[in-house]
Design a protein that fits this description.
mainly alpha, 110 residues, flat, 4 helices, single chain, 0% strand
Length: 110
C-alpha cells in the first residue's frame, strides 16, 4: 500500500496536468487494497436487528452525498469522469465499512 501511495504522491509532485490520472489511479489502488483488507474482518461481524437501521441510514446518507457531489460541474478536470465515479464509489464503500465496524464494535466511553 505504501508503494502505491508513494507513486501517487510522486505524480502530484511532478505537477504536470497530464499526470493527474496516474495519481488518481495510484490512490484508487490503495483504497481497493484497503477494501480487500477490511472485507476479511467484515465477514466476522455479527449484526443485531437494531444495527440494521443504522447501517441502512449510513448507506442512504452516503448515496445522497455521492450524488450531490458528482452532480457538481468539474470544468477544469483532466481526469475521466468514469474514474471519478469509481473513486467516489470506492470511498463510499470504505466509509460505510468503517461506520458499520464502529456501530457493531462501539465502545461507549461516556
Amino acid at each position: 500500500m505504501f508503494l502505491f501511495s508513494f507513486i501517487g504522491d510522486v505524480f502530484i509532485l511532478m505537477s504536470d496536468n497530464n499526470l493527474e490520472v496516474g495519481s488518481v489511479l495510484s490512490f484508487l489502488t490503495v483504497y481497493l487494497l484497503f477494501i480487500i483488507h477490511f472485507v476479511n474482518g467484515f465477514k466476522k461481524l455479527k449484526f443485531n436487528k437494531t444495527d440494521v437501521l443504522s447501517i441502512l441510514s449510513v448507506i442512504l446518507v452516503m448515496l445522497i452525498l455521492s450524488i450531490a457531489i458528482l452532480s457538481l460541474q468539474f470544468e477544469k478536470m483532466k481526469t475521466d469522469f468514469l474514474i471519478i465515479i469509481i473513486y467516489s464509489m470506492i470511498l463510499g464503500i470504505l466509509i460505510c465499512i468503517s461506520v458499520v465496524n464502529h456501530i457493531t464494535k462501539a465502545i461507549m466511553l461516556f
